[in-house]
Amino acid sequence: MTVITLYKQGISQRKIAKLVGHDRKTIRKIIKKYEKDGIKEPMEIRRGCVLDEHKEKIVELLEKDLSGVRIQEELIREGVKVGYSTIARYIENIKSKKDVCIRFHTEAGEEAQVDFGYAGLLPIGNGKKRKAWIFNMRLSYSRLDYYEIVYDQKVSTFLRCHIKAFRDFGGVPKIVKIDNLKAGILEANFYEPIYQREYKALSEYYGYEIIPCRVRQPQEKGKVESGIKYVKNNFLKGREFKDLKDAESKLEYWVKNICNKRVHGTTKKIPEELYEKEEKRELKELPIKEYCINILSKRKVCKDCHIVVENNYYSVPYKYVGKFVEVHIKANIINSPYAKNQLQ
After folding, report:
1. How many domains does the chain have?
2. Smallest Cα–Cα separation from 178: which of 232, 119, 117, 220?
3. 9 burial class (0-12, 13-18, 19+ CB within 10 angstroms)?
4. Whether residues 204 and 318 fall in one domain
């Protein structure tokens, strides 16, 4: 297009070649096409790929979580002569396209996905409102959902939601897949070892494996992201609540009587029925006693020999002034091995 524009201005082919940095033969060829065929802009060259006709099959194999090597084996078995590098490039191209959705299927009782979604400001009375989020744990096989409204994003809240979800399901999946959650508890401090330790302890107590989703791999957490989108559009949107208790009560009713009883768009089955018939028996049994949350934290000792925890002051020996001490917050007990007093 630049060449044609310059040509229309009466600039010679030699000067055009110098200005655009191309050979005169190339300039002459472009001008000839313009004068003879009326081509005013470059035509897009689309080269086909030997794998295009096998795209549906490749996507199907990707959904089964097969590697590039295994996909190559399957195609060769079907008579397709193709090298691994071609397969690898084609798979990368499929994954990068926004209009191609690869669904990862799981077995009954195998996996649950968790995420937070912002619920906006909910009324608390006297004309005041409070920030709220909705926690969602979804069983990947049956799509049975557990939802809960929460009012902070502390690690203890995140853990408590897991415990209540397992109780609601009546069992524990083998894997809990967590997003690199944008929620504050993970963005701010979840990858600090002190918090990893507590979530790891919870997973060991209930016997499930933690699998974080990889960055920029939205298809890996698509089920729970759909769950968050669903609760926002079908529960929160257009509803009014008197107060927080009213919102929680209505959410509980919606989950039991609407959410888990509708025909799911992907499975074409009712989550509650699929859960009862096929998934419930595959979940791991709950431990006899529920896990007791023990949050570990660190506090710096002030000059007055005190640390501040939950807006309360606790004294520690003078020798720790200016240093950080480890604090254990367990149920309604705050304890530090260095503190002189405890609060029950």
Report:
1. 4
2. 220
3. exposed
4. no
Query: From residue 157, how far is each of 133, 179, 221 by CA, in Å?
Result: 11, 16, 21
How far apart CA 66 and CA 296 sit, in angstroms, is 40
Please report whether residue 340 resides in a domain: no
Going by the DSSP 8-state scheme, the letter that residue 320 receives in this structure is: G
CB atoms within 10 A of CB 135: 24
Three-class secondary structure assignment of 276-287:
HHHHHHHCECCC
Rounded Cα distance, 328 and 157, in Å: 16
**pLDDT tens per residue, range 51-65:** 777 777 787 777 666
Assigned domain for 16 exists: yes
Query: Residue 19's domain is classified under what CATH number?
Result: 1.10.10
Taking the model in full, what pTM does it have?
A: 0.60
Do 165 and 28 share a structural domain? no
> Is 317:290 a contact under the CB 8 Å cutoff?
no
Q: Are residues 207 and 269 in the same domain?
A: yes
Q: Are 199 and 264 members of one domain?
A: yes
Residue ranges of the chain whose pLDDT lies below 50: 45, 99, 182-191, 193-195, 215-216, 218-220, 333-344
Asked if 301 and 278 sit in the same domain, the reply is no
Strand order in the sheet with 128-139: 145-150, 128-139, 111-125, 175-178, 209-212
DSSP-H helix ranges across the chain: 2-8, 13-20, 24-37, 55-63, 68-77, 84-96, 155-169, 184-188, 193-206, 222-231, 244-257, 271-274
- 104: in domain: no
> 56 and 188 in one domain?
no
Burial class (CB in 10 A: 0-12, 13-18, 19+), 60: middle
CA-to-CA dists, residue 303 to 18, 255, 298, 322, 342, angstroms: 74, 51, 16, 7, 20
**Domain region containing 263:** 111-282
Determine the pLDDT at residue 48: 60
Six token digits for residue 142 = 């049956």
Region of 321 (left: φ > 0; alpha: ψ -120 to 50; beta: rest) is beta
Q: Tell me: do 208 and 251 sit in the same domain.
A: yes
